[in-house]
Amino acid sequence: MSSPISFYALAGEEILSDILASLPFMDADFKSRSIDAVSQLAAARGPLLKFALPFGGEAWLVTGHALSSSFLADRRLSKTSPLQDQSAPEAHRLYRHLLVTDPPEHTRLRRQLRHALAYWTSARIEALARDIIARRLAIPGRDETHFDLVAHVAMPAALEIACTIVGIPLDDMARLHAWNDRLTRSDLDGTDQAAEVAVEIEAYLTGLPERKVDHAGDGAWAALRRAASRGDLDRREATALAYLLLSAGYETTGHLLSSAVWLLAGDRETWRTVAADDDAAARAIEECLRFNPSLELSTPRYAREDFEMAGMTLRKGDMVFIALGAANRDPSIFRTGSLFECPRAGLAQHLSFGRGPHICPGAGIARVASRTIVQELARRFPDLRVSADHRLEWIPGLVMRGLRSLPVCTDGE
User: Fold this and answer.
1) Quick one: how far is CA 53 from the chain centroid?
2) Which runs of consecutive H residues, i.e. helices, occur in 5-64?
3) How many angstroms separate the Cα of 189 from the Cα of each of 24, 57, 100, 183, 397?
4) How far apart are the first and last CA of the chain?
5) Across the strands, what pairs with 6?
6) Who contacts 103 (Cβ-Cβ below 8 Å, separation ≥6)?
7) What percent of the chain has pLDDT over 90?
8) Global pTM value
9) Which residues does 232 contact at the CB level (< 8 Å), separation at least 6?
């Protein structure tokens, strides 16, 4: 393995192509500027480089937009390593879902997930999100002039959306949040609680009775169970897909909501436009997605075989991450990509939801829910702003990107 060298030591110096970059994503201070740091490193090193992983080992990092877009759909990359140690314990079956499968298996699972979500049209998502934010803002005794948007609005609203879509009783939201928190903390401190948490979540999901969301449609978990009873899925696959909807949909949407308020509320004219114009609000969410995606890096891929790309040789089994945040700021695609600009043209080219066979199946839900909730906030609180003395702190992590807190004021003072 190459010797790692800190990004900070490289600034302003010639960077050699065989140096293993140290990008400390698990450091909160670095995380606050990690997208810019990766972009600067890419400008010096090129769109494909190796970096040291937080808990040991190394991986390739793809940074340029063109190469990232290509890698996202490249069939020479797999979601499972071809060099897996057969003697090593397998991940719990709850984690064997869309994110770790390839076509044709991935295509079959994705088709069943699409059927399970068919009830949730854009109109129903919008109505659900509007109802949830109205209730969140009407909690008796809550201070409407000063509150933490992350803790009191963004994350609870995102979790309630995910639970409702899947068909989870809202009384159990606290349990789901606690499980997610344990997994996040285990990532940060290097402990492994994943198998233990998976056993608990699986037992919970399989013990739930089928539940109607309303008189017209079922939750996705009920639809997935029916698919299993028909033989289109096995029971373990259905449970893993239900878990994926809960976990991925909750965190990514919650982080998008808080990021969008941070970015949009800083400009009065933009905030007023978001409140008044649905199309402008939708475009604003796309710029928030581009500039500060909830997934800073993609989930990992692995080289199926040796191959050459961008002047580098990837070996069979090499791990690859795509730097979605840096790719979204590539100046060859977005001329002023390092700046947040609303409105901005060409936003269909951002990669925040991926591209190719693994494009996010919940992208439409996240877009509509986020646009609706941010609009409702802008209408309810036209003078909302981030507290002047607050220093943004980002949650450390290799893949996910989200604010730890966002204190806001709504009284204009």
Assistant:
1) 19
2) 7-10, 28-31, 34-45
3) 14, 17, 24, 10, 11
4) 55
5) 22
6) 357
7) 68
8) 0.90
9) 112
